[in-house]
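REQUEST ID: PR-0412
SUBMITTED BY: lab tech R.K.
PRIORITY: routine
TASK: structure prediction, single protein chain
INPUT:
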Amino acid sequence: MSITDAEKQERFQILLQQIGLGNDAVFQDFTKDGKIEKLVVDKANKIWEFHLDVAQILPFELFQMMRVGMNQAFAQIAQTTMRIHARDETVTERLVDDYWNDTITPFAKQSPMIGQLLIEQKPTFVAPNFMEVRVHNEMEQTTIAQRFQPAIAESLREKGFPNMMLRTNLLEQSETEHYKAFVEAKEKEDQAKALEAVQVMQKRAEQQANGEGGSGQAPSGPFQIGYKIKDDEERKPLGDIHDEERRITVEGYVFASEIRELRSGRSLLQFKITDYTSSIIIKMFSRDNDDAAMFQNMKKGMWVRVRGSVQMDTFVRDLIMMAQDVNEIAGVKRLDTAEEKRVELHVHTPMSQMDATSSVADLVKQAADWGIQQSRLQITQWRSPSQKLTVLERKTVSKFCTESKQT
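STATUS: complete
OUTPUT:
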């Protein structure tokens, strides 16, 4: 059975009565010919979506009053949403300004950096359907175009707007008073931090000279900064990270690590991990001297579990992770459980004319770790006449081998 336009209009008026706007003369020009085109009910999630048809784009104040009123009226039944179609889609600068923050706020949670940039300014309306915002660099320009423009346009369409296009203009920072003030403040801050750094370094030097705590020696034991991360905590594969995240846990193999001393006196640990689905740069700032000392224990080849936030780094122009907690995960050693440990072993090392990767020291120590008590080393071929065992290899051979011979 088809519903007539008159019935649709009547139902719209009943809805206005229910939410307390039926006798509102202020917005009568916007509501008198309104219709409920249809109601889409999602029973599983208890969501009612009202498809409304109105004469023109609603003033934001009226839109907000309707949204709040519907949520309150149907609170015990379902969550309500509106999808509005305006027969006259004329856009004004006032409408764009009024709807802007309400449209941007949900997306700001997904990317705080871009969200703050957009919320702190009002777009410039360019007829007929363009909005322009200012950005600081090409990275922000690309991010807005790829991730925000389609979502913002869809959100405005749901509110009755036509298909709006968001354009970005690079801001000439050197020509703005705001940027000049920022530069001056930054210079003063840098000077203060530089002075503080000198004082911190002098204090560290005094502590080391007096043998006090914070001597800078790396503590022994597994690497751990922050809280212990439980084994059963959900971990996200690096290959599934495509956007900024507020708080996640990952783990992986460390394949690069470095420590930088900052002018503020703090240390910055930066390391890269992979779980073989992808890789990511992880950064962590020291909070005290104990953290700075522990940073020295972060080594290539470790397997670590990390908890923190994922954010866009303007320096590397990529997603990085700011770590809050880092735990080293002890690897499972391969064991030789045979009662008789005698093994016939013939391998090559990097000293051989044939290709190999494991050094003499690594091979001999691995044999000792497996409990092989009798081992013999014989070097039969040299890659070059001048090549010799390193000091470490000679010490390892003399410690673990019962016999060594060179031919």
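NOTES: Residues 93-171 form a domain with the GMP Synthetase; Chain A, domain 3 fold (CATH 3.30.300.180).
REVIEWED BY: pending
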